[in-house]
Every structure is written in structure tokens, then in C-alpha cells.
Amino acid sequence: MSNYETLEYDVLVIGAGGAGLRAAIEASAAGVRVGLICKSLLGKAHTVMAEGGMAAALANVDDRDNWKVHFADTMRGGQYVNNWRMAELHAKEAPDRVRELEAWGAVFDRTADGKILQRNFGGHRYPRLAHVGDRTGLELIRTLQDQGIHQGIEVHMEHTIVRLLRDDARILGAFGYDRERGRFKVFKSKALVLATGGIGRAYKITSNSWEYTGDGQSLAYHAGAELIDMEFVQFHPTGMIWPPSVMGILVTEGVRGEGGVLQNNKGERFMFAGIPDAYKSQTADNPEEGWRYTQGDKEARRPPELLTRDHVARCIVDEVKAGRGSPHGGVFLDIAWIKERIPNAAEHIRKKLPSMYHQFMQLANLDITKEPMEVGPTTHYVMGGVRVDAETQMSNVPGLFAAGEVAAGLHGANRLGGNSLSDLLVFGKRAGEFAAKFSRNSKAGAVDDAQIEDAAREALEPFESATNSRADTEGPYQVQHDLQEMMQDLVGIVRREEEMFRALEGLTKLQARARNVVVYGHREYNPGWHTALDLKHLLTVSEAITRAAIERKESRGGHFRHDFPSRDSSEGRMNVVLSKAEDGSMRIRREQIPAMPEHLKQVIDEMK
Amino acid sequence: MKTALFRIWRGDANGGDFAEYTTEISEGMVVLDAVHAIQARQANDLACRWNCKAGKCGSCSAEINGMPKLMCMTRMDAISGDQPITIEPMRAFPVIRDLATDVSWNFRVKKKIKKFRPRKPDNPDGTWRVAQADIDRVQEFRKCIECFLCQDVCHVLRDHQKHNEFIGPRYLVFTAALEMHPLDTEERLEDLKQGGGIGYCNITKCCTKVCPENITITDNAIIPLKERVVDEFYDPLGKLLKLIRPKT
After folding, report:
1. Is this prediction's ipTM beyond 0.90?
2. What is the pTM (predicted TM-score) of this model?
3. Domain count, chain A
């Protein structure tokens, strides 16, 4: 028998970024007992790194904005494989969620008449992102954190969940350990909300922190939930590329929103070439008009630098491949040039983009008010994840909910910048609300001891391997490193079938190696052990991405196939659905996306 | 390739000592990169916290050559290469293991500070009008990433261990952000004087010096709060005036 402590909740929330905190706040406000689990300390989750802002059609800066425009922008950006009902709810509810944050103490930047200021971002027709300089994520997570701690939520910091517990009918809780002491814990709960974020650590170059190992997607999958859209991984066009140690760190799209331009080594603004047809009517065809747009001219159309992230990232890859890249294999992003246009440009840049200024000054010895930055694509976000019901955020496993990046549907094939923070709020709230409701209508279930024993045994395997260690054993870091290299090379921005089949073979080998990794030392705060346990999740999501990417034989949004370079409008409007088969293998099937109802079709037509 | 010698504190609550590691140094590397390299190749079980690696989350606080710093924002080329580089956990908090310390006290302190209580909305749609000029100061305080380096360096906590009587610079900044918020209506001066122990701060400004977000903690947050406390509780003339003209 393993030793473990048992805790009981009505609703257990796993993950304490924006979505998890918002869900926990909502559930506890509904009067149920809520437990909140975070892998790190409270307030350190990945949300803290979000920079640009949260998209909501408040219409504070441009009164032509409303939910319909936001909805149409989101669908266009996602290339129409979004869950349209989620996109509708999101566009309608985001403004209230932002205002609510202000009532909880968030301090947004202001317009001249004292309203919440909104900025331009890629793919959004009007200035739509409520923001605080370029540290909006910090403002969001801190506001939720400071609200949440007064609501009686029980927070378990530095805890990791390794398995979800269930019976034949529904979810019953989760099994995990505290990182500090390595003690096992069983969290029984009537409803469970996954809010664990993304999968960036499956790749070598990423803007994501160590926490982003696909835990939620993998936990849900192994518990019987379906995953969709896993082939859609967003490579953010502008990550830092030099010096090597900072490779992948995000450079906010806000730089382009404030007038920053992309240039190749010939000094050309290459984004003006090849503007996609769907965006031609909305995009400036000369630099002058683009500049006017960034300065708030309502008659002007947006510059091509503010096209969607998938497109911009591919254009950068093409420039580099054509030999027109910057010295370290990226392109130039120049905000310093605006000094030709406005007085006190340096001060203006420091005010609007303080953490970018700070980040480049300190990490790259580069003053962005004087010189262009070197940037290149970085793995940033996964549009796919747990398939959920649009209204309730519940998965196909009763009692198992998911919100935020771990859930799929809202963003379709490509997420617009700024739609993530609003996603966290809108669907975090919904998940909390409906999880609380679900828990009210459920009785606590009996967790089968065998499941717990099995999870405990599996968690301790890396130590067992150490005691009967053979010569050919290795630590977890090397396996993780090799996985990241392989995914970057074979299932990255530009994909080919033959390479992805090689990736599947590689994954089989890596899975075997992961089963044999050894960990030395104790269970107390042992990052080697933690990394070994994360490997299972990383391998599961890597397999999901690869299989889904092979299945989608077209290019759409974040998924670009070299062998199928265009969009397949007849076959493409489907979801690739993944689930765990009886024999443990990954089952894959296609499912048509239901047709949009008439009133939403009309909205799309109006906004063309 | 260039190498550097590190002396990293290894141990737990029962004690420990420095262990030496040599690792390769490449261009632009920060101390956290070196720690990661050591963790990956030489000491898989070396405990340290980190998340964003971009100075935004405040997880990787440590003492580098005796100075409280974020490991992710400390470049190797900014440290003299001739001497071994020492890395220790924050000393104002109990150690858990290696570079990870028990900072839970901070979270408990925050819970005791009265939360934001806004005035009634200005508009029927539940919104307020606020001028940017009125929130510049508050936004400075809200840049805080809760790395707790200011708590670590504060002698009231570090040397005198007044954790029960003094909330430390982080929570004075936090209180200042609430008190100076144009919409807030809560009253916190009594708490600052009593449980907050604001009188303990003798404005040596060490906290301001170590703040990775460059928040002018002492001048902009603590001193104005001290002035408010003095006005409220220690000003005889003010007291008299209040007696004559009670608060409306």
C-alpha cells in the first residue's frame, strides 16, 4: 500500500494561470468547496508572460467595433474550423470579463477620456486589446490571484498531477504529489477543471516555460477524453534569436501594433508581397497607409505586419530560406524608425513597450529605440486540445472540464493575438460555473484503490530503475532534449509526410527510452524526477500532434504542409479527433464541423 | 570554449555546503542557463525554481556572489570571470532544498491585507472614468513580479527576523498600490501602523536597489505611506483639527 494523503473537494481546478484562477473564483463564488493546484508558486503561471493585451470589443477607441466584428475576425483568423458557438460566446462575453477585472482592481492603460485603452493587433479589424503597457498578463494574473485568495479557495502550490481518477461513468479526482517533499496526494472531487495550458516544451525553440509539457491534454486523453485540432500549433513570428541563450523568448506583437516593421537584409518590407486574398481588402498596400493605421487613422487599413501569425511566421521562414535573412537566421523588426515620424520617439517606445526595452537591453545589449531587433518564429501556442462543449466546457468524460489553452475549439487553425487572455476569462468563468453546477448534482464517488496504487507505482518507476541500474540507462534530460530537437526538425512550421512518419518512428524509440530513464536522489524537490514524469505527457502530446498533422492533408492556419501547400475547401472543414483505444493505441478519425446557423453566417457575410 | 567555475549551495533545512561545478559559457549566457546546464549534465537533482526565463515571473531569485538577483536576468559577462561564482538561496527565508526556499510567509502576509474596494461605478454600465495621470504611480507598483528579492535584502526581515511584526517592502508596495488607487475606498492606515510595522523601515533603500523591475520602492511607495500614517496618528495639530471638524 502506498502512503498518501486524501483531500476532498467539490471542484478541483488543475492549473492556476488565468483560466484556472478564473474558474476557481467562479466555482467558489457559487458556494462549493474548491481546490486549486499549481505546478509553480501562485502567480507564476505562464499567463504572466502574456504581453500585448486581451481582445474585447469594448469599442472604446473605435466605436465601429462590436461582437460581430470580433466574431468574424476570430473565424477568419481560425480559417473557419473554429467551434463557431465558442467564437460567438467569446466575442459576446469578453467585454464583461474585462470590465469585471477592472472592478477587481486591474489598472489598464487609459484613453484620453478616461476609458480602458485598446490597441491594434494582428487580425483584429479595430483597436481591440485592453492592455497595460506590454505586461498585460501580469496584470491579469495578479488581479485574479488577489481576488481569489480572499474567496476561501484552497491553493496547493508546487503540486503536480500525474493521473486523473475515474470510474466507468465519470471523473472522480486526481492523483499527484507535492514537489517540495514528494509526498503522494489523492484529490477526490466531484468535478474537475483542467486549466494546464499548452505544449510548447515539446519543441526546442519555444516561448513557453518548463511547465508547458502538455499535462492537461495528456491527462485528459489517458482518462478517455477526446482531443481535437492537435495539428494546429502556433509558431509566433517574433521570438528573440540572439544571443543563443534567449532563443525563443517572445517579442510581443505589440511592437508591430505600435508601428514596428519587418525587414529583410536588403532593407525591404517583405510583408507587402503576397498578402492573402482573404485579407487583401483590409490590408494597406503602401507603408504610408500602414503607418497611419497604427497611429489611429480610422480611414487607413492595417499594415501587412499585422496579418495573422501563421502567415507572418511563414513569410519570415521564406525570407530566411531565400537568403535574405538577418545574420543569425531571422529577420529585422524595427521600431526605432518611428523617430522619423514622431517627436520623443525613444521615450514613447519605452512607455509603450517597457518590458521589450528592458528585455533587449538586459539580455541582448540592444537598445530597441535605436536599433532593429533580430527575430524569428518560436513555438508559442497550441490551438488544439481537449474537445469541450461550447456552453459548459465539459469534455466527453462527465465531470471533466477544460478551459484556456488546454481546451480546443475557439481558435480553429490559428489564434489571433489577444484572443488568448480573453479566452481564459470567458471560458474559465464558464468552466467554473458549470463545474460547480455539476458537482452540486453529483455524489462523491468511491475511488478504486487499484488505480491509485498503479499511479503511485508508475510515478516511482524512475527511482526503481536506478536501484537495478544497467549500463545503458540515461537521465530524463537527454530524452527530453532529443524529443524537442526531433519535433522541431520533423513536425515544425513546414511539414512533410515522409518526415512526420520518421517522427512517429522516433517517438516509438523515445517512448522506450523514457520508460527506462533513471533518477537519482530523493523525492524532495528533485527536478530530475519531475522531468522524468513530465516526459510521459510530452510524448503523448507529441504523438497527438504528429498523427493529427499527418491526417490533415492540406495547409490551413498553423498547419503548413509542404506536400499539400493549399487549403482544401471541400475536405478541410473537419476536426481531426484523437482518442485512446482499448488496446492503448491512439485512435484517429475525422469529423465534419457542423454548419453554422443562419444568423452567424449572415455576420460572416456582412463582415467580408 | 570558455568555462566558468560555480560554487552552488546544496543542502536542506538540516544544513548543507557549497558544491563546485565547472560548465561551458557561451555568448549572452545568463546564470540560469549555467544552472540548467549543470542540472542537465552533472546534477539532475539540483533544486531551483524558474519559469519564464525573461524577468517576468520572479521565480528564479537567488543570491549571486552575495547579491540578491534574478538568475535569468544576470548575464555571465556582467560577472567577473576570474573568481568562482557563488549561488546561494535567498537567506531571509527557510531553505527547502538547494536554491529553493520556503517563501510561503509572503503569501500569508498578502492574505491579511484588505483587498481592493472600489467606489460605486461612475457609469450605468458599471465602468469608471480614470485619467492616465492618476494611475501612473499605481502602475509602477503593479509592475512587481513578486520575486521577493526586496524581502530578502531587507535587514528588518533578514537580520532581525521581524516576520511577525513587519510585512516587508513587497507588501508596503502592494498596500501603496491599493491606497493610491483612485477608485479604492478601503482604509488600511491602522493596519499599516499595527500589523504592518511600517515604522520598522528606516529607509536604507536596499529594497529599491535590488528591485529587478526598478520600482522606486522607498521613495514612491514607503515614504508616502509613512507620511500618511504620521498624518493620521501622530500629528497633534491634525488631531485637534479632526476633533473640531470630524470626518465627513
Report:
1. yes
2. 0.95
3. 2
